[in-house]
Structure formats: structure tokens, C-alpha cells
Amino acid sequence: MPNQARGNWSNRLEFLFSCIGVTVGLGNIWRFPYICYKNGGGAFFIPYFLFLFLIGTPCVFLQFSYAQYSNLGPGNIWECCPLFRGVGYGMMTLTFIVGMYYDVILSWTLYYFGKSFFPTIPWTTCGNEWNTAHCSTRTQMATNGSGNNSILINSTTYGVYANLNITQKTPPEEFWENNVLQLTEGIQILGTIRWELLLGVLATSIVIFLCLIKGIHSSGKVMYVMTTIPYVFLTALLVRGLTLPGSLQGLKYYMVPRWEELLKLS
Questions:
Q1: I need a labelling partner for 43 at 20 to 30 A (CA). Which of 80, 112, 140, 241 fits?
Q2: Mean pLDDT across 110-114
Q3: What is the Cα gyration radius of the chain?
Q4: Which of 93, 101, 117 is nearest to 201 (CA)?
Q5: How far apart are CA 59 and CA 197, in angstroms?
Q6: CA angle, corner 251, sides to 178 and 176, nearest 5?
Q7: What one-character-per-residue DSSP string does 59-102 give?
């Protein structure tokens, strides 16, 4: 019998928005395109859709049917089969771990958001305190230092990278590695506490706590906003990332393989 002590959704729309908010996340924006591009491009969709229908869809159906009908949490839902009770506790452990690293990712987002209000966006130029002598803009990396765009390119794509100074990095790369993360020489060197990021993690943790403090009654209302805001931001960035001068060239730089761009410069 369903546990009547647990809270319920106020209406079906809250449940729908919550499902969308859980299903569509950062991984859909940054991880999936990277995995797709790295593993054959369009060919990656063949195993993707295969396992989507064989594994993904049945798992979602199981969650939407048995889990919702039982009205139990992951720790108690396997009372029908105690042998699988560890699956529920594993789900809670995994959710705790995912929550921690997503807090860190959100703190990075807040850090970038704060820095974007500067008159000059820090990750667009070299010459900052975190930049090294290897920092170069895309224009500088496309030249060979003699004032022209002639780059020696062999007949294979490997020759392209062989003739480039691979130690050169763009300002966004150095901002990320040297300022945001402050990478050290190895895991044995911990470095110092990043107080800005620590405050960001604290802020995101407080917001998440306030969103979940009343359980499903508060989180259901929050999903109205949390589900729609990412799409609003992405649309705004796309309209901004297409209206600014040189934005199409910038998108092309990241979307087209580097060796194709270099071949056109030769």
C-alpha cells in the first residue's frame, strides 16, 4: 500500500517540470556533444539510440511506474525484495556524491558570472597575473611570428600538430587552469583554499537547502523556475554568441576541427 505520510505533487505540471529538470542538465549541454564528437560524430548515435531503447527507456518506465506507485523512498522501495535493498542505498550514496560535485560546478558558474561584470572580461586577454609567457590569442596562434599566416603543414593531420608550438594556450584556457583551478604540479601538492570558490559552494548549498527544506512541496514550486531558466539563458547566449561582431568566426573556431582551419590558412 502507498505510504500516505509522504508528500505528493500538487499537480501533474509540477511532476512534469521536475522530470524535465532532472532529465535535462549540464551533461546534455557540455558532456554529450564532447562524447559524440570524440567517438565518431554521427556514428555515435547508433549505439546511443540502441542502448536508449534497451536500457534507458525501460529504466525510466520502471521509475515512473513502480517508484511513483509505491510512494516510497529509495531506502524502502525494495521491501518487496530485500535482496536488492543495497540498490536503494547505492542510489542515495550516488545522489550525495553527484550533489557535491555539482555544487562545485555551480560555484565555478558563479565565479565566471561575477567576473563577467568586469569592464574587460578577464579570460579574453593575456597579460594578467595568472597568464604565462605561452599565452596567445587565436590570432597570434594562427601566425608563425613573421607577420603572415603561412604555416608549414605536412600531408597528414599529425604534421599539423607537429609544426605547431603545442605549449601555446589561449587566454580562456590559462584563466581556467591558472586562475580558477590553480592547478599544481601534481596531486601531492594540494595548493591553497580558493576562498571565492568556497563561498560559491556555500552559497549554492544554502540555496539547495532552502529549495528542499519542505520536501516535495517546495521543490515542486522551484522546478517551475529551475526548468525554464536554463533555456532562457541558452537562448540569450545564442542570440548574444550570433549578434556580436566576429561571433560566427568564434563559433566556427570551436566547432570545426583545428587542422581544417589551418589547411585553409596555408
A1: 241
A2: 89
A3: 24
A4: 101
A5: 36
A6: 10
A7: HHHHIIIIIHHHT--TTTGGGG-GGGHHHHHHHHHHHHHHHHHH
Which triple of cell numbers denotes residue 72? 516510497
Per the listing, cell 597568464 goes with: 131
What would the grid cell of residue 177 be? Answer: 587552469
C-alpha angle 100/44/109, rounded to 5°?
A: 30
Angle value at C-alpha 16, between 232 and 217, nearest 5 degrees? 95
Give percent above pLDDT 90 in the chain: 7
Neighbouring-strand partners of residue 169: 135
What gap in Å lies between CA 54 and CA 83, rounded to an integer? 24
| 216 vs 218: CA distance, rounded Å | 5
Spatial neighbors of 18 by CB under 8 A, at least 6 apart, are 9, 219, 220, 223, 227
Residue 56, amino acid: G
54-68: per-residue pLDDT in tens? 988 888 888 778 777
User: Hunting for cell 605547431 — which residue is that?
Assistant: 164
pTM greater than the 0.70 cutoff:
no
Report the distance separating Cα 154 and Cα 134, nearest Å: 24
Report the residue count for the chain. Answer: 266
The span from the CA of 14 to the CA of 29, in Å, is 23
